[in-house]
Amino acid sequence: MWRNPAAARATLSYREHAQSEVPPRFRCRNGMVKLVFQRPKQIPMKQHPAALKVMVIDDSKTIRRTAQMLLENVGCEVITATDGFDALAKIADNHPRIIFVDIMMPRLDGYQTCALIKNNSAFKTTPVIMLSSRDGLFDKARGRIVGSDQFLTKPFSQEELVGAIRAHVPGFAAAH
């Protein structure tokens, strides 16, 4: 379509620009976002096939890096995403076994992201753990309504992350 993405963005209205950032396979005719199942890509040779695929979705680079470091230390393969839109494409491509998602994010928040994941037949059984710095009853209840499996309060420890994985992924054994 456009050879120069910067020129394309300059000519689009705000609504068109917001829609253009959603990959085409996630767009519906009515402007809503959907998650489409695709076959997983081949595992590159350098990755250990037995490593548990974990996705961490957070707009904070510090939280993403911290979670990635803590989870890689116990033998997980970690895929990170900066927001819900970024995550949807990566979920379809990588098929993580468990997903940690921040509630407060720009564009597509954690509740909306969780609802899209849980309403997709290919991913509805994938555990989704909500992450938030707020631990109010309302936040936890809203997370349960959209289908989250657990709620962790930030800051979290390695034990909390691994405990959530053990609770929701049968057969997970952390490497130390």
What does this structure look like?
The structure is a single chain. With 176 residues, the chain is an alpha/beta fold. It has a domain at 52-168: Rossmann fold (3-Layer(aba) Sandwich). 38% of the residues lie in helices and 15% in strands. It contains seven helices and five strands, in the order H-H-E-H-E-H-E-H-E-H-E-H. It has a five-stranded parallel sheet, sandwiched between helices. Strand 1 (52-57), helix 3 (61-72) and strand 2 (76-81) form a beta-alpha-beta unit. Helix 4 (84-94) runs parallel beside helix 5 (110-118). The longest helix is centred in the middle third of the chain and has 12 residues, at 61-72.
Q: Portion of residues in helices?
A: 25-40%
CATH topology of the domain at 52-168: Rossmann fold
Report the order of strands and helices. HHEHEHEHEHEH
Computed CA radius of gyration, to the nearest angstrom: 17 Å
Average residue-wise pLDDT = 80
Main pleated-sheet profile: 5 strands, parallel
Could you give the distance between the termini?
Answer: 49 Å
| CATH evolutionary superfamily of the domain at 52-168 | Response regulator
| 3D shape | globular
Architecture of the domain at 52-168, according to CATH? 3-Layer(aba) Sandwich
Helix-strand makeup class: alpha/beta
CATH class of the domain at 52-168: Alpha Beta
Order of strands in the sheet with the most strands?
A: 2-1-3-4-5
Beta content comes to 5-15%
The poorly predicted ranges are 5-15, 42-48
How many strand elements?
Answer: 5
Query: What's the number of helices?
Result: 7
